[in-house]
Design brief:
With about 475 residues, the chain is α/β, with parallel strands linked by helices. The protein folds into two domains: about 260 residues, 3-Layer(aba) Sandwich (Aldehyde Dehydrogenase, Chain A, domain 1); about 180 residues, Aldehyde Dehydrogenase, Chain A, domain 2. The protein is about 40% helix and about 20% strand. The strands form seven sheets. A seven-stranded mixed sheet has the order 14-17-18-13-12-19-20, with helices on both faces. The protein has a five-stranded parallel sheet with strand order 9-8-7-10-11, with helices on both faces. β7, α5 and β8 form a beta-alpha-beta unit. The protein is globular, with a radius of gyration of 24 Å. The N and C termini lie far apart (about 70 Å). It holds the Pfam family Aldedh. Keywords: Arginine metabolism, NAD, Oxidoreductase. One of its GO terms (biological process) is L-arginine catabolic process.
């Protein structure tokens, strides 16, 4: 179903559905939004904007907090839906639901710290700084965190006074519908948030719509690049683009090879490798120290528990979002091997569980010309180098710049790595995907426009306005005029 101007209605487009990737069972069915549906959603958002924008900030906060209360009261149901639609183990579904709830307090703090208001008296009245909403924002959600990531755009945008047209990933429409119903239950006025379901055609209709003030996007480099090019030169359109990364993890002078390997495993394989901050490239020294880390990762990868979202005991990872996604990872691995890479442990299908389940892979690409691409799954590429200078050069040998990590006992190496690593998230002895909602999230290059999410979302949801004012006009002196 679509939510347009406060009314739930069926889309007029093609049939669509989502499936549990573990067993193929149906999770959601409906029809996609057509261009006419999208047009109605934008008209509703535009009509709702003046009243919502004028709404006092405490009143907007009250509705956002009511949304938070709804999520808290329905956390288990939300977590189960996330797990069923994405395949994530139950513990990850609960973690994502918890992150959505936690986003409310963080977004209020961010809005106060990064926007805020202040005024001062002057000889001619007062001068003030305040912030205003931009207008109608189009939010595109990804499938890997179908609740948490669009929530990180929607909550700050609503707090700032914007209205929204929201399109979830076509892989996870049920979570998007749950979110829209949560906002409806919280008392959000009609038209302030409108839900359209669909795939490429629905997204294209929204991006083509004339009544658009911003695009808030989390997804692939290819789609983000298309959006960036589409709006090139249109400075009135706010873009927040988070587009993943080909992230490096350097392990150097780390005495405990097992500890280093476990950081690498968490970095590369958590969420079946479907986090944009996952490590894709592991950079190690030549020789025995690097060998010990590789051997430990290989052993751990062979022991990782893999299972359905509701398996007992809970697995470390579940399936990829679809069998097609799993096939894409295996195809990328085959391409690396055809170029001359060496398989230490090939990613393989876990046949007894289903085609979407993969046992993680470990591929040595040292000396091989490989594409600078984000392989979105549980596959890590090893690069062996002779010096720490070479390690930093290898880490930065990418057009992306989202996340980078160093595992080392040497603080001097860490200080150097922090300065020289070209990434927006730079971690020491922690996984590359260790990122907090109360910090910025983003990076340079093909990863996006530097800080398109998390705490800094307040920056792109409102713009600063400088004001000088007094209660009535006075006759100002004009040189040469009596």
């Amino acid at each position: 179903m679509l939510l347009i101007d406060g009314q739930w209605r069926a889309g007029k487009g093609a049939d669509m559905h989502s499936e549990n990737p573990a067993d193929g069972s149906r999770v959601w069915s409906g029809k996609a939004a057509t261009a006419d549906d999208v047009d109605a959603a934008f008209k509703a958002a535009r009509a709702a904007f003046p009243a919502w924008g004028r709404c006092l900030y405490p009143e907007r906060v009250a509705i956002v907090e009511a949304y938070q209360a709804y999520l808290e009261a329905n956390k288990d149901a939300l977590a189960e839906l996330i797990s069923r639609e994405t395949g994530k183990p139950r513990w990850e579904g609960l973690a994502e639901a918890g992150a959505m709830i936690g986003k409310i307090a963080i977004s209020k703090t961010a809005y106060a710290e990064r926007t805020g208001e202040h005024a001062s008296d002057t000889a001619f009245g007062y001068a003030a700084l305040a912030h205003k909403p931009l207008g109608v924002m189009f939010v595109l959600g990804p499938y890997n965190f179908p609740g948490h990531l669009p929530n990180g755009h929607i909550v700050p945008a609503l707090l700032a006074g914007n209205t929204i047209v929201f399109k979830p990933s076509e892989m996870t429409p049920a979570v998007g519908e749950f979110m829209a119903k949560a906002w409806e239950a919280a008392g959000l006025p009609k038209g302030v948030l409108n839900l359209v379901q669909g795939a490429r055609e629905t997204g294209a209709a929204a991006l083509d719509h004339a009544d658009l003030d911003g695009v808030l996007f989390t997804g692939s480099w290819g789609t983000g690049k298309f959006i960036h090019e589409k709006f090139a030169g249109r400075t009135g359109i706010q873009l927040a683009l988070e587009m993943g990364g080909n992230n490096p993890l350097v392990i150097w002078d780390a005495a405990d090879a097992e500890a280093a390997a476990r950081v690498a495993v968490h970095s590369a394989y958590i969420t079946a490798g479907q986090r944009c901050s996952c490590a894709r490239r592991l950079i190690l020294p030549e020789g025995a120290a690097g060998d010990a880390v590789v051997e430990a990762i290989d052993r751990i990868a062979g022991q990782l528990s893999i299972g359905r979202w509701d398996a007992d005991p809970e697995p470390f990872i579940g399936p990829l979002v679809s069998a097609q996604a799993a096939r894409g990872v295996l195809a990328a691995q085959d391409d690396l091997l055809s170029r001359g890479a060496k398989a230490i442990r090939k990613a393989v299908t876990v046949a007894e569980l289903g085609e979407a389940f993969l046992r993680p892979g470990l591929i040595d690409v040292t000396g091989v010309d490989v594409p600078d691409e984000e392989v979105f799954g549980p596959l890590i590429q090893i690069v062996r180098v002779a010096s720490f200078d070479d390690a930093i050069a290898a880490a930065n040998d990418t057009a992306y710049g989202l996340s980078a990590g160093l595992v080392s006992d040497d603080e001097a190496l860490w200080e150097r790595f922090w300065v020289e690593a070209r990434a927006g998230i730079v971690n020491w002895n922690r996984p590359t995907c260790g990122a907090a909602s109360n910090m910025p999230f983003g990076g340079p290059g093909q990863s996006g426009n530097l800080r398109p999410s998390a705490f800094y979302a307040a920056d792109y949801c409102a713009y600063p306005v400088a004001t000088q004012a007094q209660s009535k006009a006075e006759r100002m002196p004009v040189k040469g005029v009596d």
